[in-house]
Structures are given as structure tokens and as C-alpha cells.
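Hi support team,

I submitted a single chain yesterday and got back a structure, but I'm not sure I'm reading the C-alpha cell output correctly. Could someone confirm the output below corresponds to the sequence I sent? I've pasted both exactly as they appear in my results page.

Thanks,
R.
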Amino acid sequence: MIDYVKAHACGNDFLIIDESLAHGRHAELARAMCSRHTGIGADGIEFVDGRKIRLFNSDGSEAEISGNGTRCVAAWLAHLTGTQELVLDTHAGLRTCRVVSSMNNHFEIESEMGTPTVAAGTFRYRQQEIAGVIVSTGNPHFVLFVDTDDFSYNGLPWVELGREICESPKFPNGTNVEFVRVLSREAIAIRIYERGAGPTTSSGTGSCAAAAASMTMRGLSRRLRVEAPGGSQQVVWERPDTQILLTGPADLIAKGEAFL
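Hi R., thanks for writing in. Yes, this is the structure output for that exact sequence:
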């Protein structure tokens, strides 16, 4: 039996499990428990050891960090301890999370997400040279700007192109892919193809990457609302040498036991 907590941030859902229960089976447990039809169902598992966390995607691969997953862990620990500020140790470094507000099992949390790096990049697919932006937020991202309502790029569906970029040999360790449509100087909409999970309703690091690319390459406001299918998050990046701040919801859904 494995105890778990399930939480989500804008529909991007995670299981939270004590590291001591993994017994080295992190990848196996992630594949089994995250399965939508034969398991509990989730985009990934956050294994927690005190304030140290490890993220495994639903395909069993380990990732450096999830902004939404980190926020879900912060919500659970805040629920347990009443602590309003937590410093969590991820593979991408320390991340400070502050509870802005809470009611019952719903939390609004501001997270320090590190200092992004942003650079122009290209990807070649079907004889098309695709201009994008390579961003690191502690994990890798490739950001494309689109002007279509369905987020397609030059006639290519975003899910198809996202998969091709994510799994391309150009990115030996894979990459997350964000498709960005500018709504105004203060707002963007995104679609996310997440490494290790596929299309997701939201992404914390993806929201930060999309915002950083928009601020740097398109001159948008340093305070951006990022709209994803699962909801909106706020990204603030005052200057290129400062930490990027991500504010959004985290909801605790359930506690349970898995027969594994």
C-alpha cells in the first residue's frame, strides 16, 4: 500500500508521495500510478523528503522541476504545518514559495522560479525553418509565437509539431514546447506540449518560459497574465537579472492508498 495525496494547479495534476515509500521504484511507480485508466491518474509524481522534492513524469522520466508541481507540494506542506513560506529543494535549485491566500483546500501561491535565460533558436521540420525561442527556467523550453486561434503553426497542428520538437534529436534530453498567442501587451495565451507527459492543461515553468520569451522578444509588459486551458497564472519579471515570479492556484484534491 502506498499513501498518496493528489493535487492540481490549473488542471496540471500531481501525486505527492513520501520519498521513503519509493524504494528506488520511482519510474515504475510514476508509470503505474499516473496512468489515467489503470492507475490514479496524474501528469507526474512529486516524491517528497522533508523539503527536498523529485519530479517523475507520467512516462517514468525524471525532470528537473515543475513549477505547478512545486506549488502543489507547497500547498500540501502549508496545509500540514501552517507554514506560509517554504523553501523547496528541486533538481533545478531552491525555490521559495509564499502562500498569498488560502481557503479550505484552495491555495494561491507565489513562487520564485529562478532567473531565466532566453535566446533565439530554430527548428527544421518538413523543409520548414521554424523560428522559436530557447528558454531555460531550470528545465528546457522551446517557445513559438503563433497568430492562429487553434495555435497551429504554418498549417501544422500544435500537438503534432510540439511532439516533433519535444522528441527531436536536436534536443538530446527532450524539451518542453510552448505555443504563444499574444492577446495584448499584458496578456498571452499558451498551449503546452510537456516533455514526459504530452499536452497538459497548464505548466508553471512553461508559463514562465512563454512570458520570458514574450517580454524579451516581443517587448511585452514585465507583468503578464498567462492564459492556459486550465486557467490563468501571473508572471512578473522585473529585470533580466532578477528572479521571475509565478503566482497561481494549487488545489488539494484527495488522499488515498494505492494497491502497489
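A quick pointer for reading it: The helical segments are 26-34, 67-81, 158-166, 204-218. Let us know if anything else looks off.

Best,
Support desk
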